[in-house]
Every structure is written in structure tokens, then in C-alpha cells.
From TrEMBL:
Gene3D superfamilies: NADP-dependent oxidoreductase domain (3.20.20.100). InterPro entries: AKR2_Oxidoreductase (IPR053135), NAD(P)_OxRdtase_dom_sf (IPR036812), NADP_OxRdtase_dom (IPR023210). Pfam families: Aldo_ket_red. Residues 44-235 form the NADP-dependent oxidoreductase domain. This is Aldo/keto reductase. It comes from Microbacterium binotii. Coiled coil: none annotated. It comes from the Bacteria.
Length: 313
């Protein structure tokens, strides 16, 4: 049993709704057929979801240059509600670009490049799309192979952005997330102060490193807590469904609750594509009773191999 009074705040991430294709499961059920996912239709969906998030008290919103038109959709919503901006924390990321051409069947949807040239190209794009600077600006999906933590000119430019009042940091992915988080904290703790990492019941390996970052004063944001749809009633293995049932929760509610109960977490992202998913994650992921927490981890190498095999749909 895990007993804790701590419950991290919930944020809303636009990875699944800023572009017509993504690697989450059941997208045709959630969004309709790919032919129904026009730019206008997806913008309308994002605006409705943002209205719901606001009504639910969600005040952290997350986007990225690679999330299709997510920054633009968020920016147009902010422009329609200028009174809300001061109450929100906006996060975005650079280092990937969307190259799918709004084609769900594109052979390639995003391209990674952690260079000074990419930052200098994408930072003005983010400012224009959002109508101003985000509060957090992260290097997208830093891995041990990324040059982002060793490029002196790049780090100097990130420092210049930091000096304008924007908090800078990293997001991570892959089986060596913990190594990257510790390295960024040890080598660049005077520069970075935010980290966004994948953490869920199947892949909690970054937890100790994220706890160390939290102890150092960093803001810790968790993503992919539903494992791209694997941690839902429709797809979770029996052992997870049984644990959720014991807690009188659905699997997705249980997965969110487990993430929000971690003492070192500040924000947990919902990647909802529908109003019901967003409401359920916000309203049912803070149970009053202690949460049963068996060990579900499958090992980071196995988890990330499975994730890399997911289809864009």
C-alpha cells in the first residue's frame, strides 16, 4: 500500500490532438476516421478541450513544435481568452519539427535535430504561434546520444532565453532517461530547472533520478502515464485491471492516480483526445483511500522496444 497526502497537479498536453496522426491507440474511435481530421476540425477539438481543461481547474498546458499545429491551436485559444494567460503556465519544446504535411499516412511525421540552427529557427516560430513566450521551454527528447548537453554555443543561446525569464529544461525519452536527467542536473544545474519525462506503471525507471532533480529544485513533469493507451481498460493486462478494480477505479484513472501520488512529481500530463478522457483523468485520479501498488514494471529496454514498434494512426 502507498499512503501519501501528496497529489501532483494535472496538466493537459496536446501531443495527441495537434496533428492528425499519433502513436496512441484507438484514435479512430476517439477522433473519427483520418479523413475527418482536417485542420479546422482538430483546432475546434483542441479549443473545446482547452475550455474543458480550464473549467476543471487545469492550469498547465503543454505543446511542442513537433506536435503539428498544437502551438498555433493553443495560441489562437489564448488570443480568444486573453484574460486567462496570467493564470496559466505554458510549456513547449524545440528540437523536433513536424514534417507530416497533415497527412495521417505520411512516411515520416517528425524529424529530430538538436542544433543551434534548429533552436534559432524554432524559437521565433514558437513566439509567433503562441503570441508570446512560453513559461517553460524544453529541449525535446534528450537522449545520451544528443549533442544538446555538450554544444557550448547552443547552451549559451539557451541561457540567453533563460535570461529573458523563461525557465528552460529538457524532456527525455528512451531506456536511459535516468542517466540523461542526472547528467543534465550535474552538468547544467545552473541552467536547467524543468524536466519532463516518461513515467508510468510499466516504465518507472526514471523515478529516482527525477526525485533527485525535484530535490534540487527542478519542476518535474510526467508524460505518457497511460503508456500511449496501453494503460486503459481495453488494453491493460489482467493484473493491472485487477489492481484498478481493487481501488474502485478504471485502469486509466488508476494509472493517473499512481503518477500523481509520487512525492517528487509536480505535474502529470493528460494527453486526452476526448472530453470524457480529460474529465475522467481530472475528476477521478485523486482517490481518498490508499492506492494498492503492485510492481508492474517490465524493464525499460522491453518497454521502449514496444513503444518504438507502435504505428502512427
Amino acid at each position: 500500500m502507498q499512503e501519501s497526502a501528496h497529489t501532483a497537479e494535472l496538466g493537459f498536453g496536446l501531443a495527441a490532438v495537434g496533428r492528425p496522426a499519433y502513436i496512441t491507440s484507438d484514435r479512430e474511435h476517439d477522433l473519427g476516421s483520418p479523413t475527418a481530421r482536417s485542420v479546422a476540425a482538430m483546432e475546434s477539438r483542441v479549443h473545446a478541450l482547452l475550455d474543458t481543461a480550464w473549467a476543471l481547474g487545469i492550469r498547465y498546458l503543454d505543446a511542442a513544435r513537433s506536435y503539428g499545429r498544437a502551438e498555433e491551436f493553443l495560441g489562437s485559444w489564448l488570443a480568444a481568452h486573453p484574460d486567462r494567460r496570467a493564470s496559466l503556465t505554458i510549456g513547449s519544446k524545440w528540437g523536433y519539427e513536424y514534417v507530416g504535411g497533415w497527412d495521417p499516412g505520411a512516411a515520416l511525421h517528425e524529424r529530430k535535430e538538436h542544433t543551434l540552427a534548429m533552436l534559432d529557427r524554432q524559437w521565433p516560430q514558437t513566439l509567433a504561434a503562441l503570441g508570446g513566450p512560453p513559461d517553460f521551454y524544453l529541449i525535446h527528447s534528450v537522449t545520451p546520444e544528443s549533442p544538446a548537453l555538450t554544444d557550448a554555443a547552443l547552451l549559451e543561446r539557451i541561457g540567453e532565453i533563460r535570461d529573458t525569464g523563461v525557465r528552460v529544461g529538457i524532456s527525455t525519452s528512451g531506456p536511459r532517461q535516468a542517466e540523461v536527467v542526472d547528467r543534465a542536473r550535474n552538468e547544467h544545474g545552473d541552467l536547467f530547472s524543468v524536466v519532463q519525462s516518461t513515467w508510468n506503471l510499466f516504465e518507472p525507471s526514471a523515478g529516482p533520478a527525477l526525485a533527485r532533480a525535484h530535490d534540487a529544485g527542478w519542476t518535474v513533469v510526467l508524460k505518457e502515464v497511460l503508456a500511449n493507451g496501453w494503460l486503459t481498460d481495453a488494453h491493460a493486462p489482467t493484473v493491472v485491471r485487477d489492481a484498478a478494480r481493487t481501488a474502485s477505479l478504471t485502469v486509466d484513472e488508476y494509472a493517473f492516480a499512481a503518477a500523481r501520488r509520487q512525492e517528487w512529481v509536480d505535474l502529470v500530463l493528460s494527453g486526452a483526445a476526448t472530453d470524457d478522457q480529460l474529465r475522467r483523468g481530472a475528476e477521478r485520479s485523486d482517490p481518498a483511500d490508499p492506492l494498492p501498488m503492485p510492481v508492474f514494471a517490465i524493464g525499460p529496454e522491453t518497454y521502449w522496444q514496444r513503444r518504438s514498434a507502435l504505428d502512427w494512426a
